Protein 1
Amino acid sequence: MRQGKYPFVIGFLALPVLLYSVFVIAPYAQAFQLAMTSWRGVGTPKWVGFDNFRRLFEDEAFWKAVQHHGILLLALPLITIAIALYFAFMLNVGGGSRGGERVGVRGSGFYRVVFFFPQVLAVAIIAVLFQMVYRPNESGLINGVLMKLGLDPVFFLIRPNLALWSIIGVLVWQAVGFYVVLFSAGMASIPTEIYEAAEMDGASRVVLFFRVTLPLLWDTLQVAWVYLGIAAFDCFAIVAVLSVDSGGPDGATTVLAVEIYRNAFVYSRYGYASAMGVALFFLTITFAALTLRVSKRESVEY
Amino acid sequence: MGPEMTTKTDRPTPGPGTTRKLTAAAGKGRDRRIKSEVRLFSRLGHVALLAWAVIVIVPVLWTFLASFKNTTEIFSSPWTLPAELRWENWGRAWTEARVGRYFINSVLVVAGGVFGTMLLGSMAAYVLARYKFVGNRLIYYMFVSGLAFPVFLALVPLFFVVKNLGLLDTHIGLVLVYIAYSLPFTVFFLAAFFKTLPTSVAEAGMIDGCSHTRLFFQVMLPMAKPGLISVAIFNIIGQWSQYQLPLVLLPDKDKWVLTQGIAEISVNAGYQADWAGLFAALTMAILPMIIIYAIFQRQIQGGLTAGALK
């Protein structure tokens, strides 16, 4: 067994480790360095210490983006998880028990397939799709109907206080199906006897949901929250493609990823963009650490 | 669990303690109540489910129909059917807007990216999962820690790394970057999978004089097939959907992948007022995914949720 082990191990690891070091580790390490410099892409980067961060804290676009991440961080998981939980419960438990087995409502299989579908589409494609859906005149899917009914068109992406919510709507549209499938898998592993015992005691469906399903699904919910939270810190493709002027109108939908891209590849402020990347990194890490701490509640054994 | 539940429920039947000894009459009354409740609940649920299904299907269906309309029809009413099947919209999108080109580029990049990811990822995962050597854990955590970092942190330096290697605007460069950024999840998932495989088969192979390399390719890989399929699907969907990396690493229009192309067409459609062409391009991007999803629906759901269920 020993013979020839090391050459084999090294041979198998060399290429993956090399690629990973060059394209992943090195750029991450350089990002922290670049964040301390002023660099327009030519010559050697000029060391400026924490100047970029000082500028960052006075940058209105940065704070707007952070604020939007805050909104996304609350709204996206809450709305998505609430809708997905309800649907997953309907699809798995909602139909009552038949022959000792929990069943969902009729057509469960069909709904699961349809709901999950947006997950296989690229976000950039979905963004273009919803540009058409949200169009502000008769050619838009929603406004076309509204105007036929004699109502005023809704300016989904143009009104500053509506634009971000229009984008959240699209994100929820895409995400719900994924979490329905995820929660379904979690619910399937809850023993039928628990439901039966509860029903025997006269528990209504609402009680079943809140007292049985929810506590036993806690771990899965936690995973969902972390996933959606991390998604809330990205949102590049959807904002860059769907919103007016990539993050507009007037910065009303901008997120850090869009600002990083704009600063680096439009304005060639590479050092400043890297500083934003570092800020984004610390926000993400803080979120992940906080979530794990707060949600570390004893999971129910069964 | 049972007794605890009863004290918490707010059902109208009296007193604790009697709950376990239900009389027949009370049982019947409760059954009726539950039945009517079930009916109301599932009716409401049905409406909600149906509404969501409509919300998911309608935008896609509407795009599909609009791809055959002309501009007048598109602006007149969203709900009328096209007067005729105008395939010329599709032709215009395929050639003039170059959807065909972008499509082929995407297929090439994803094919190379997923093949490389699976090959290198399974090799690394296998060695890390089943061989003891100095630095094993270090390398494993190096890969897995990549899951925690946002790609945007690396974006600027990555652009210059690729540029300095002379790989900017090349599909090879994008493929290598895709592989590198797909490794954390692939290694994480497959290492866990390889650990679950029985050691007896590997030992038997070793006794038969099988080399480490042959053992991997001819015995272990076939045994890991279910895990490999899940991760491959995960990577195909992930790399196919990429937008930010190609946007930065492929500035040249000829090299663009589908997501870049469609986003650009959407901008241009505004200038040229060719909405029908945009709808056709959009349909072309969506339709193959519908077909693939319809065929591999079970595997795709399994593959995409595999990571979260671990």
Protein 2
Amino acid sequence: MAVEHPMQSSTIVDVLEKVLDKGVVIAGDIRVGIADVELLTIKIRLIVASVDKAKEIGMDWWETDPYLSSKANENTQALEEENKLLKDRLDALESQVNTNNRITTESKSEG
Amino acid sequence: MVKKVYLYGLVPTSEYEESVLPEKRGFDDEEVIHALPMGEIAAILCKLDSNAYTESFIEEKMNNDLEWLQKKAFHHHEVLMLLNKLYTVIPLSFCTIYNNEDSLITSISSQMDQLTESISRIYGKEEWNVKVFSNDEILKKKVSDSNSTIEAKRKEISSLPPGKQFFEKKKLDQLVERELEKEREQLCVHIHDELTAYAVQADVKKNWDKKATGRKENMSWNSVYLLEQNEVNRFLEEVKIQEQKMGELGLQMEATGPWPAYHFSRLGQMKK
């Protein structure tokens, strides 16, 4: 189904995209420097991915020794692989954001 | 102790007086969400403990406590979805917080004209999002099979000696890649144009990385539309038509809505 209702199907991506949008109708007294929304979403997915994977594997897999259970071992490897990829991506984005933040902070302090 | 104020959204006071705001716990799970009418506009807010919700606390939580961020962002959004069902609402950004009620009143009063203008712009309308995802393998095959430039290049290569063919094939791959991007962009622009015909306003947003969407397909278009309520069904029909047409080219569409007018209620301010 191509058409979805935001409340039933909203992913964290959709919601963060909306609620953290940079444009501001009216500003509050508290000004929070937000990291890049995409970066935050990737970080959240990093957590969610681990939890989902853990569920997929079965609730009991970590109770057995992962090194003795080949199934758990395979899945751990897949998980580690995915985490590594996500972390690499994160590092790249983080260094980008640091540069951007500096610019934002400078322009803020001028205003 | 003076309490801080968490502001969710702004609604017309007349609409607020007509429909009761259901009782709901606020941002801190303790205080109740309520309305503060200020002339034509009423603020929907909840109180917050001033000592607990400092600037540094929120910044720290937002950037480093992702479970907190996720939970609170959904809370903020859930309240706005509720408001959007009941009223014409200007949704505010996550964590729009004032030091006290007086400060909120001063801020809103000073921008009353723009806010009422925003309200009238979104009154009776819905905000919808359309994302297009592309399975590049399918489109690549189409492009590779039907593009005349590629076809000519391929013929040319087959007549070359084997050693030269290797490098020329590499170049051909790059050409296919470029043509694929061009084709994908054109298809998305076409979809966007067709959909914009039903909208009062439309905008193109940034595409998200695969790592953020968690999908196999690339996001190749991300756009937002402001629709008159009576145009929504026709708009969604058009989405279906486009989806059927584009499906065989490997493009999938995803329409979501109605969203609180996060995007279009702030446009007036952005143009300043």
